[in-house]
Design a protein that fits this description.
Layout lengths: L4 H8 L12 E17 L6 E7 L5 E7 L3 H6 L12 E9 L5 E8 L5 E3 L26 E4 L23 E2 L4 E2 L1 H6 L5 H4 L21 E5 L3 E5 L6 E5 L16 E7 L2 E7 L4 E6 L2 E5 L4 E9 L4 E10 L3 E13 L20
Parallel strand pairs: 3-5, 12-13
Antiparallel strand pairs: 1-2, 1-4, 2-3, 4-5, 5-6, 7-10, 7-19, 8-19, 9-19, 10-11, 11-12, 13-14, 14-17, 15-16, 17-18, 18-19
């Protein structure tokens, strides 16, 4: 019997939003509330605005409503000054399930009367700085800030509405099948409880590169290429001066990478992974072992200023066949912003 990622969803998946735990907000229960701002926090994975609401008896009830990630708010031109302390705001959103006085913000009327929706843009996207196509040593130039297209960008490259903040699909090949060890590895595992993202931990180097459209950074030298992920702060070093992996690799979430150029395509071979997840989400759960092996190809399209990455993933210990996927990022007009995860979903409301 074959076990496919999408089939396993029946057993191990449930409704959940992109970062917080499953069912934190009820999309079938829209609400509107007006209050006075007491605090604002632009943090990752989600910002929050805090405000006091006057109830029917004249009492003060503290509320908080969730925003998108702080890094994405800043990329969209939002600032904390929009939510001035003491200003009156009106929020529409999805009612909290576990907290009576909480919501996921859909739109807000600010104190000055202006209106923002959750993914509203406060700045015009401009062309990124010009850059040489090659470095001084002749290598193809990948250095710079890179990010997937924003939701509803106000100009620039991208779609009018880019959809939810998903990472690249991990597509099982036609011969994909979990081994006995792979099936045993997911016994008792659920996306709702075990997703590393819910605990400020990265999922994997494939999914996290474009997840939620955070800004990544590539630092390039003759001997190494460093990939700094804008989501969960993964840092990868691609060793361009090695032809083989060392034998004494300490397993990590990012693994050990060596690279080579095939004309202007960067080919990256990675092993040395700590056990983790290939897929973990509403689409299913598949774990990988420390036998995971991946090959990625990075290629640049000068016409669109797009950096395309494809990957092929194998793990003979946990599954037969392959996973494949691809993702695209563009030169960013906003610099890299470290993630610095601060999970607030389980905090108590402030006095």
């Amino acid at each position: 019997m074959k076990y496919y990622a999408y089939a396993m969803c029946l057993a191990v998946c449930g409704a959940a939003d992109a970062h917080h735990g499953p069912g934190q907000f009820d999309r079938s229960q829209p609400m509107e509330v007006t209050g006075v701002v007491t605090d604002i926090r632009f943090v990752n994975p989600h910002g929050y605005v805090y405000f006091d609401v006057t109830d029917a008896n004249g009492g003060t009830v503290p509320w908080r409503c969730e925003l998108q990630a702080g890094s994405l708010l800043r990329r969209s031109g939002w600032t904390e000054d929009l939510f001035g302390i003491g200003g009156t705001i009106t929020v529409t959103g999805d009612q909290g399930r576990r907290e009576e006085h909480a919501c996921a913000l859909r739109s807000v009327v600010l104190a000055d009367g202006s209106v923002l929706d959750r993914y509203g843009q406060r700045r015009e996207v401009v062309a990124p700085p010009t850059r040489p196509l090659r470095l001084a040593d002749g290598q193809f130039n990948l250095a710079g800030a890179w990010a997937a297209v924003q939701r509803r960008p106000a100009g620039g490259t991208g779609l009018d509405d880019a959809g939810p903040g998903r990472g690249p699909e991990m597509i099982p090949g036609p011969d994909f099948e979990l081994t006995a060890a792979g099936r045993k590895a997911i016994e008792g595992v659920s996306h709702q409880v075990d997703n590393p993202r819910f605990y400020c931990m990265p999922v994997n180097i494939f999914f996290d590169w474009t997840f939620d459209r955070h800004i990544n950074e590539i630092i390039q030298t003759e001997e190494t290429i460093t990939l700094k992920y804008g989501f969960m702060d993964i840092v990868r070093t691609i060793h361009m001066n090695l032809e083989e992996h060392p034998v004494d690799i300490t397993p990590t979430r990012a693994g050990h990478s060596i690279g080579r150029w095939e004309e202007d395509v960067l080919v990256v071979d990675t092993i040395g992974f700590a056990e983790g997840f290939i897929v973990v989400g509403r689409e299913g759960v598949v774990k990988h072992s420390n036998a995971l092996h991946s090959v990625e190809r990075f290629s640049y399209d000068a016409a669109t200023q797009a950096l395309n990455r494809s990957h092929v993933v194998e793990d003979p210990l946990y599954f037969n066949g392959q996973f494949t996927g691809q993702g695209t990022v563009y030169l960013s007009d906003v610099p890299f912003d470290p993630y610095d995860c601060v999970e607030l979903k389980d905090e108590d409301l402030r006095d």
